[in-house]
Amino acid sequence: MAHKVVVTREVFDDVLERLRAGATVVDNPSDRPLAPDELAVLAADADALVCALTDRIDESLLARCPKLKVVANIAVGYNNIDLAACTARGVMATNTPGVLDETTADFAWALMLGAARRVTEAERYLREGRWTGWQLKQLLGVDVHHATLGIIGMGRIGQAIARRAQGFSMPVLYCNRSRLDAATERGLNARWVARDELLAAADFVVLMVPYSPATHHLIGAAELARMKPTAVLVNTARGGVVDDRALIEALRQRTIAAAGIDVFEGEPAFDRGFLALDNVVLAPHIASSSTATRRGMAMLAARNALCVLSGERPPNLLNPDAWKS
Ligand code: DGY
Hints:
Rossmann fold, 2 domains, 12 helices
């Protein structure tokens, strides 16, 4: 009998076609996030889930889906999945590394430039009919070129962000669990430093770490207080890595100059305090959202699911202990 794959959110037609070539597919064209109970009912007899970061994959769901062999997340981040629970049940979990690196790095730069040069604030000013003419001191921003870029989390995406800094003549400071090799550091004009040194010295601080209990509120009031009053913070990592209340307060008090934020604690809900601030550029978790990249992510998730269903090891297995367990 054909395997059943549940696709929890709307994906591209060619991704569904690819899945349909190997399985019976139940999809969710309404694109409404499924409530935990709805998902459990839909996936009760499923062999594979192609899911998104909006789905909680935990023990209570897994217990209700006894046939499940694979959970293929359409994201590189996987803090929505309880990996230990998957492994205990022999369910493979996969993510989509690599395909979104450059697109996400582009967007981190969009937020850096937008926040530093006050792009969204300037547009609002114009749209609201407040522009009466050129002024020397109008909407003064901070320079990006030749500034010091600090990157916290120097994995593939962090390095893609650093590569772009070369074109802006920016030295790079970075924090990462492990140090890059000397040739890569030289190529990126990057120096491995302690987090406090980075926070104190960087003009731009970009966060690119995965979310985990260890990175919860990695940037809070104390860390924001270490930053320069002219500095810009960019969060393209995950909500919860920044203490949003503390950030709002720092932006309000101008203890840092500006921020560019793509991810929020408890999203899609977010602290409405952000809306009262001019010195923040806000986006609804779209750093990887180009057509090509989102298609690539969904296609890779489909490939991971189909590999498992055909008995092959998936390319992006997160819990190797579940393989043939
Ligand atoms: C990821 O891949 O983790 C992104 O946040 C998805 O948008």
